[in-house]
């Protein structure tokens, strides 16, 4: 249920054409395939494996957003700097520096 609502939310936020273009991009084929395979595995009751595969797909698809989120997270009292540092590192592992937000849908 959450997967379907996640896809509906992205579609409502970006629109159907941009959502399809986002998932169908050549640079994102690995993340899109992992995301859809994860959903399929969850539907055939391999929930743990499906969840892990789907998380990998989300990390590949949306990893470049982690640096943007890190800049906002820095302002959270007490845990903000630590959380921002972790998100910054995750964004670098996802290749945010390489792409430099060139393929963001919005």
What are the main properties of this structure?
single chain; 106 residues; mainly alpha; 7 helices; 0% strand
Characterize the structure shown:
The protein is mainly alpha-helical and 106 residues long. The radius of gyration is 15 Å and the shape is globular. It has helices spanning 2-14, 16-24, 29-43, 47-62, 66-73, 80-93, 96-99. It is built from seven helices and no strands. The longest helix is centred in the middle third of the chain and has 16 residues, at 47-62. 75% of the residues lie in helices and 0% in strands.
Unreliable residue stretches:
none
Portion in strands: under 5%
Counting H and I runs of at least 4 residues, what is the number of helices? 7
Portion of residues in helices? over 70%
The separation of the N and C termini measures 26 Å
Write the layout of secondary structure elements.
Elements: H1 2-14, H2 16-24, H3 29-43, H4 47-62, H5 66-73, H6 80-93, H7 96-99
Helix pairs in contact: 1-2, 3-4, 5-6
Question: Could you give a quick summary of the protein structure above?
Answer:
With 106 residues, the chain is an all-alpha fold. It is 75% helix and 0% strand.
């Amino acid at each position: 249920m959450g997967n379907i609502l996640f896809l509906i939310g992205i579609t409502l936020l970006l629109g159907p054409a941009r959502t399809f273009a986002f998932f169908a991009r050549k640079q994102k084929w690995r993340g899109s395939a992992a995301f859809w395979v994860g959903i399929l595995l969850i539907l055939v009751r391999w929930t743990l494996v499906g969840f892990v595969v789907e998380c990998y797909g989300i990390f590949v698809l949306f990893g470049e957003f982690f640096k943007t989120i890190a800049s906002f997270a820095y302002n959270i009292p007490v845990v903000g700097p630590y959380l921002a540092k972790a998100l910054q590192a995750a964004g670098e592992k996802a290749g945010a520096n390489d792409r430099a937000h060139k393929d963001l849908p919005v």
